[in-house]
């Protein structure tokens, strides 16, 4: 398989008042096309910083970042992001929020009808056809996050970047959306990188889990292959010995030898 | 799956509507005596609620008028009743014209409003874009900050001689005073609004790589609008505050001139009426802009 997203010796240093702060060092990672990779670690380990580097919202102090063979020079619609706090524009309806992205990506070569159809399809994909003309403050947190996902998927990105996409939701809604996210990503087959702090979420969704050591100067501690066949059933896996072993391994990494009182 | 959760929310909302219908539906039918009493009770409750809401304000006004009457009695100022009668006479013919210095109250109000409108309009046209630029570019902000801090606290009327000297005429000088005193809140609030735009919205714009124009129309402008409206509201308030004083000095037709003219005529009743007119119009402007501001308030939760 092709290496799609590639990080070589990536380092991120912040210049603060107290001096240099090394957030990330020696990050080497390559993600294949169509792969689902999770990045997990304790708060402050720089996992969101790492995602921002791939997004292009911030630039690496050192090292090389490639996406589809080209250097990542800045943010762009080929790498769609689902933000933790949904980041919908509150003055636009759900439809218009998605349409803004669709228009940006396909506006040059498609008619208005086609663009509207795309927007409609994206909202249908996440089951929000009925809420299309509601405003963000009129819908629940889970629904907002769905719109965020619809907006990202509507752009047909090369890479889907998820920054703790379900972190702000209650446990039930989160489980529900995890299952849906798994289905969506499987159906579309786009390369996905997700930052999370939820062990079950990581094991359930990922092909590989990248485990980060604690900061400062965090780096990749271990990469765990999740070879559970898909589709994965939450209920069946709850008793599955292999699932529990993998889950245990992530927990051991996070809370065992790694754990330092933060 | 989600369709289920949506329809659940709708189900939650529906019973409310149903309840209202069941309450209001039986009314026109042949009402048994007991039901008639309950309808009466319900209307009684509504009226009681309205009275209870209005009572504090009414009490405040009553005490105010009472104090006014007492003070008037002691000092020889016109009391509430003579003022009221005088106002009735004044407002019965608001648009008469007897020469340049004797025109109806309606003309005075309209002329004052038009001066405020022009001065404030000019201030908005220049102040709001300037606020955007100052908010967007830190260099410009640092450049303008000392000038704004220096000029903002200057009393509005201190600008009048400058206006008179430059324009050689009273009318543009008055507009100039309104302009220079009402521009600051719009510059400052717009600039603050621009700097307070949540980074998340800007990140969305960056990830989508929106064009500068799209960023402005879809992200910057709507995000700043509530702050801008606050600035506009403050500016209108200042402009209306300043107009009376400016017109006292520049003359012509207008509320301020009218107050001064009636002082020369020693018609104190008219001066008190003018105070009420200025207050009521200021209140209306404020309410109008609050209503407008609410339209742009995105309840973000």
What does this structure look like?
The complex is a heterodimer of chains A (262) and B (301). With 262 residues, chain A is of the alpha/beta class. Chain A has a domain at 1-73 and 197-262: P-loop containing nucleotide triphosphate hydrolases (Rossmann fold, 3-Layer(aba) Sandwich), CATH 3.40.50. Helix content of chain A is 36%, strand content 26%. In chain A, the strands form two sheets. A six-stranded mixed beta sheet of chain A has the order 6-7-8-3-9-10, with helices on both faces. In chain A, a hairpin with a 7-residue loop joins strand 9 (208-212) and strand 10. Chain A is globular and about 50 Å long. The model of chain A has no long low-confidence stretch (mean pLDDT 89). In chain B, helix 4 (105-136) packs parallel to helix 7 (170-195), helix 9 (212-250) runs parallel beside helix 10 (255-264) and helix 10 (255-264) runs antiparallel to helix 11 (268-295). The longest helix of chain B is centred in the first third of the chain and has 43 residues, at 33-75. Chain B contains eleven helices and no strands. Chain B has 301 residues and is mostly helical. Chain B is flat, with a radius of gyration of 27 Å. The A-B interface holds A 55, 57, 74-77, 79-81, 83, 85, 87, 89-92, 100-101, 104, 126-131, 135-137, 140, 142-143, 146, 155, 176, 180 and B 1-3, 5-7, 9, 200-201, 203-204, 206-210, 214, 218-219, 222-223, 298-301.
Summarize the SSE layout with pairings.
The complex is a heterodimer of chains A (262) and B (301).
Chain A: E1 3-16, E2 19-32, E3 36-40, H1 47-55, E4 62-67, E5 70-71, E6 79-82, H2 94-106, H3 112-125, H4 141-154, E7 159-163, H5 171-188, E8 191-196, H6 199-205, E9 208-212, E10 220-225, H7 234-237, H8 241-255
Parallel strand pairs in A: 3-8, 3-9, 6-7, 7-8
Antiparallel strand pairs in A: 1-2, 1-4, 4-5, 9-10
Chain B: H1 2-24, H2 33-75, H3 80-92, H4 105-136, H5 138-151, H6 160-167, H7 170-195, H8 199-208, H9 212-250, H10 255-264, H11 268-295
Helix pairs in contact in B: 3-11, 4-5, 4-7, 4-9, 4-10, 6-7, 7-9, 9-10, 9-11, 10-11
